[in-house]
Amino acid sequence: MTYTFPTWVPLLAIAVAVIAAVVGFIFYRLRLPTRLVLIASAIALIAGGIFAPMLAMDKVILDDEKLEQTTGFWFSPTVKGFRLAEVEQVTIGTKRDRKNRVVEVWFVQKKDGSAAEIDPGDLRENNGPDIVKRLREKGIRIR
């Protein structure tokens, strides 16, 4: 099973990029201050060049072998997860992040005695109940 963001999410970032580019062009044609043109151009580049591809490429894959999440910038993705055969149990808990916000964390206890702490991210959190159900069906204990 592959989980991704709905199509409208990266399209929204593309729409912001297009609108910002058009606004920047209009500002340029009206000879408004260069600062405004640069701000609109920066918004277009960031939304279209960073956020849209990032949102389009984020995915969580749950198959018979692994649970794997690919997230982050398109030019430097982060892959995190675990192989199902190595897992004893998963405990879903919370902790405080650097900004003192409470965030969900998956504590993965492996059969060899080692443990890992995984931040599930938005995509896995949004699909958490279905992922937990499917992991249980594959014999993984979830607490």
UniProtKB/TrEMBL annotation:
<feature type="transmembrane region" description="Helical">
    <location>
        <begin position="7"/>
        <end position="30"/>
    </location>
</feature>
<keyword id="KW-1133">Transmembrane helix</keyword>
<keyword id="KW-0812">Transmembrane</keyword>
<feature type="transmembrane region" description="Helical">
    <location>
        <begin position="36"/>
        <end position="56"/>
    </location>
</feature>
<keyword id="KW-0472">Membrane</keyword>
<protein>
    <recommendedName>
        <fullName>PH (Pleckstrin Homology) domain-containing protein</fullName>
    </recommendedName>
</protein>
